[in-house]
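In this supplementary section we document a worked example of the pipeline. Step one takes a protein sequence of length 306 as its only input; no multiple sequence alignment statistics are reported here. Step two produces a three-dimensional model, which step three serialises into structure tokens for compact storage. The input and output of this example are shown verbatim.
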Amino acid sequence: MKPRRLALLACASLAALTFSACGSDSLGTSAAPGGGNDTAESIPAVSPNPALTERLPENIRSANKIVVGTDATYAPNEFLDTDGRTVIGADVDLFNAVAAKLGVPEVEWQPAGFDTIITGVQGNKFNAGVSSFTINERRLEQVHMVSYFDAGTQWATAAGNPKDVDPENACGKTIAVQTGTIQDEDDLPVRQEKCGDNKINILQFEGQDQATAAVVSGRADAMLADSPIIAYAVKQSEDKLAALGDIYDSAPYGIVVHKDQTEFAEAVAEALNELKADGTYEAILEKWGTEQGAIDQFEVNPTVGS
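The serialised model returned by step three reads:
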């Protein structure tokens, strides 16, 4: 999945319905889903743990910041605020809290194409990747992943399902999906193999915002994405989109860390455990309406299906 996240377009005519990365850069306190900035009231202050700071890579400690790659088109997990440059969302608030627990005063959020983030971590462009990455064996061969949330896949169509899309038989339909996601790489190819000559017309988009816009505009008959993203898109669409079918294939999201930095990954997992214990973890998820994806154990490279 990215089982990933949608900022309202501040740059085009589909403003109320689509979500986009109009700008680039980074930091700031996160706004709640309904608008307005209530971070200080809803999320407890985080106390650093000096023992965890000592476990950080030297380059992070010397810079006093963590550079994070993220695909800022995946609301409510990571997306751009109305200024077109500040990355906000549930994942953003959570990792900012992790950084605070690690004793790092700054997180620099760098928007990037989803399918470039893991290679960016491998090439040391980013210290971490936080972008609703579903943990799977393929990714675990490339990087460390620290579990922090659980999500599944769901479909969505225009309200009323006017093209009569059946997720169990989408052959002949036009389906939008974000490139590089679990839905794109694993889910749709399996469905496509069963279609014979009546193939699914798969429209691949760089951003989830673009996939959503394709359904809203009628260019695509349906889309599939992570369940929190579908729920948020439907809510923000003002009855123009509707979820289709049940959530399936639940799996954990993981924070991406370089394969050589096991101690850093373990420190992130411990920071998450401490945030769970003090109530910060649940407060962040409740703020964004994603508490149904909360997990109890945060692990480095948990055992998952392929």
